[in-house]
Specification:
About 45% of the residues lie in helices and about 10% in strands. By secondary structure, the protein is mostly helical. The protein has a two-stranded antiparallel ribbon. The termini are far apart.
């Protein structure tokens, strides 16, 4: 599968996990071909993709702790 977006790649990886083909499929993104040796590698990629998708969406509400010093 060629890279089109982080969301599409996440969907493809999750579908491959669900149908059991994750360890036999290859994925091309960021200029490299990736194949997984374990389910742990695939789930780490899904976590990373979730982070990237969140970054693309932009900031939502953010909290900041402010301490005033006299």
């Amino acid at each position: 599968m060629a890279f089109t977006s982080y969301t599409a790649l996440r969907t493809a990886v999750l579908d491959a996990i669900a149908d059991g083909s994750i360890l036999t499929s290859g994925y091309s993104f960021m200029g490299r071909q990736h194949t997984f040796r374990s389910l742990d590698e695939a789930t780490k990629l899904v976590d990373w993709l979730e982070q990237k998708i969140g970054e693309e969406a932009g900031p939502e509400e953010q909290e900041a702790l402010v301490r005033f010093v006299r």
